[in-house]
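User: Hey, my collaborator sent me this sequence without any context and asked if I could get a structure. I don't really work with proteins. Can you help?
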Amino acid sequence: MIKTKIFAHRGASGLVPFENTIDAFSKAIELNCDGIELDVRQTKDKVMIINHNPDIGGLIIKDHTFDELKEKAHKIGFKLATLEETLQFCQDKIFLDIEVKEKGFEQELITLIKQYLDYNQFFIRSFSEDVIIKTKEIDSNIKTVLLISTKKISKFITVIFPNKKIKRTKCDIISPHYKFVCFGFIKRMHNKNIPVSIWTVNNNKDLSKFIKKNVDYIITNYPNNAIDILKKEK
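Assistant: No problem. I've predicted the 3D structure and written it out in structure-token form, which is a compact way to encode the shape of the chain:
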């Protein structure tokens, strides 16, 4: 039986005032989560920062410097974290599942990550197939996670049955939104030796359901609830 691993979405984002911050990551470590999922973008002056949205308070990240964005974040009420600061803080404390939001800086990203983490301490994930392919080209030893979802009915089948995407990207793990996990998805992936990482599962009933289905990874805003349920179910 697979022991489902619990990853804190953007840190323990449901339990702190601001997601994707050192405070959020610290909370995930305090809870003994198996890992942290976090988002990386690059500023105009090539600083890799932790932020999900393409902007901070209306300032487009790729069009502004780190100092400008840091000041804006401070006015909003949180401390903007760099990737390097996050790697230093989390090193040897918790696994990192690093989502790359935009392509184009894969080499710089990988070079920095490998200064702090071993291969068994991180994944690189992305919705961008180009990012996954490029990562594997740079270093095939890095485990990659392909994110899949869609709002288009015409692409529904390619998400439910992602075999071509897996083959094309050579990803190690497939990561659908939990609502797309149907028609025996987990079992089909396991038959191909592909682990499944689902997001963002916050309802206790859904958490229990997927733990019982032996999903490999659950990404959640409330890892405390997931950990409690996991202890009861397993």
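In plain terms: The mean pLDDT is 97. You can pass these tokens on to your collaborator as they are.
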